[in-house]
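Listing S7. Sequence submitted for prediction.
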Amino acid sequence: MQPGRMIANLFAALLVAGLVGAVFLAFGRPLWPVREARMVILLPPDSMATGSVRRACVEPCLPARFDLKLAPARPQG
């Protein structure tokens, strides 16, 4: 190979690598997503809303209906 072609191929490879790097910098997203912990904060249970264990009951005595406003939302994902 001639030295001129080797230099031209080297510059072409550097140009392609620079374009690929610029695309990654422009869009700003890595190839592999960062894994983050998704936490749900649980509120302390309210015995009047969720149910309670009484001495008169053998099993847990649950209320007739459950207030869904007290329950945390299901996490998306």
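Caption to Listing S7: primary sequence and predicted structure tokens for the chain studied. The mean pLDDT is 77. The helical segments are 3-27, 47-50.
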